[in-house]
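Below is how a single chain appears once it has passed through the pipeline. First comes the sequence as given, then the structure the pipeline wrote out for it. We keep one example in the README because the format questions we get most often are answered faster by looking than by reading.
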Amino acid sequence: MTAMLFALADQRNGASWAARLRKRRFAFFRELLARLPRPVSICDVGGTTEFWRGVSLPDEDDVSVTVVNLEQQPSAGGRIRTLVGDARALPFAARSFDVVYSNSVIEHVGTFADQRRMAQEVRRVAPRYFVQTPSYFFPIEPHFLVPGFQFLPLDVRAALLMRRRLGWVAKAESMERAREEVRSVRLLRRSQVRALFPDARIYREKLFGLTKSYVAYGGW
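Resulting structure:
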């Protein structure tokens, strides 16, 4: 088991397993989406135009996607439009979309209060949602790719990041910067996902029998 965990923590292996889970997850989303009458409008909170250019959708000519991100995304044209915005205060009226989709974003928005604000916005702007987030208890932290990293005290995690690059996160040049990077990820427990999305069904993504992440989906 220990050897397996360290193998998964390797950046290339981590990317490979993450890609497989994303593919499986999106297949599930496609199944849900296929049930809806056309046309369908999707708001992707925190996504990228690159992602949507790389996937296919059922009856995609009748599916439009609005990508909202803190950083301006490259224009894609056609059925995909982009907008700069904050997940905690989406710039849309209530029920502006048919579906909100969000993948590995809610763990990055700040405190639990910030996460609650995002969850409220997700449920406000569409009657249906599909929100994925990594599990706090999976033994490999998915951003820093260090076994048990999320269980260490903050300053220990920051000190490790000052020594070297960890996973997808570059080596920090100061303790202050290292703390900012570590604080920028707040993984969720299942009970917290349930608290944020009380009307949701929660699907557990499994890897080697362990819960790798949660998908909260509601309104379908």
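The chain has two domains: 2-139+185-218, 144-184.

See the next section for the split statistics.
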